[in-house]
Amino acid sequence: MTKIDTQEKLRAIYGEPLGLAVSKCLPALDPHCKHFISLAPFAVISSSDTNGNADVSPRGDGPGFIKVVDDKTLVMPDRPGNNRVDTLSNIVDNPKVGMLFFVPGVNETLRINGVAEVSTDPGLLGLFADTPKAPITAIKITVEEAFLHCAKALMRSKLWDPETRIERKTLPTLGKMIKDQTASDIPESTQEEVDKYFAQSIAERG
């Protein structure tokens, strides 16, 4: 039987985690974590509903767009979008979330696990008064675990290496792919038109 369906079978293959892998896990943000977040213009947040259906969502803005309030608290803006609100809906039902922070050019990442809530608290929304457009809601995350992840994954992928970048025309435009997937009659646009549309949407709506 090849399916690994118990913790005992899993540990029989991998053994116990190495000491540093355990000890590096912090219960709160230290100065290095805070500095990393202040430099990060991109993060992903994972969530799941009460049935365990999982989702992961990319989030991005200027460096430090996710605010550090204190050692245990982060606040992330939720900008206008297509109103699917998958992450927000999941948080309402199941507040457990995980986050991964990226800094361009840095192969290490920062992982955070915690408990989130969706809020319209003016004090939290006011943290983003320095941005052109105010968020609709804020996602407040109470940190339970924080730890730096080693560089191997990004080194293997060569994510930041300019020589590994593909030509955008290797893929069809977003509109073309969605049109094929949904059999909709939306008009096709060039990549330049698509980029211009989203840039204008960011400028107008945040």
Write the layout of secondary structure elements.
Elements: H1 7-14, H2 19-23, H3 31-39, E1 42-48, E2 54-60, E3 67-70, E4 73-78, H4 86-93, E5 96-102, E6 109-119, H5 122-125, E7 137-149, H6 152-157, H7 174-182, H8 191-205
Order of SSEs, N→C? HHHEEEEHEEHEHHH
- Which percent band covers the strand fraction? 25-35%
Radius of gyration in whole Å, from Cα? 20 Å
> How much helix, percentage-wise, in residues?
25-40%
- Look at the helices and sheets and give the structural class: alpha+beta
- How many DSSP helices? 8
Describe the largest sheet. 7 strands, antiparallel
Q: What's the total number of strands?
A: 7
Low-confidence stretches: none
Which strand order does the major sheet show?
2-1-5-6-7-4-3
Outline type: globular
End-to-end separation: 52 Å
Description:
- The structure is a single chain.
- The radius of gyration is 20 Å and the shape is globular.
- Helix content is 31%, strand content 27%.
- 17% of the residues are buried.
- With 206 residues, it is of the alpha+beta class.
- The protein has a seven-stranded antiparallel sheet, covered by helices on one side.
- It starts with 6 loop residues before the first helix and ends with a helix.
- A hairpin with a 6-residue loop joins strand 5 (96-102) and strand 6 (109-119).
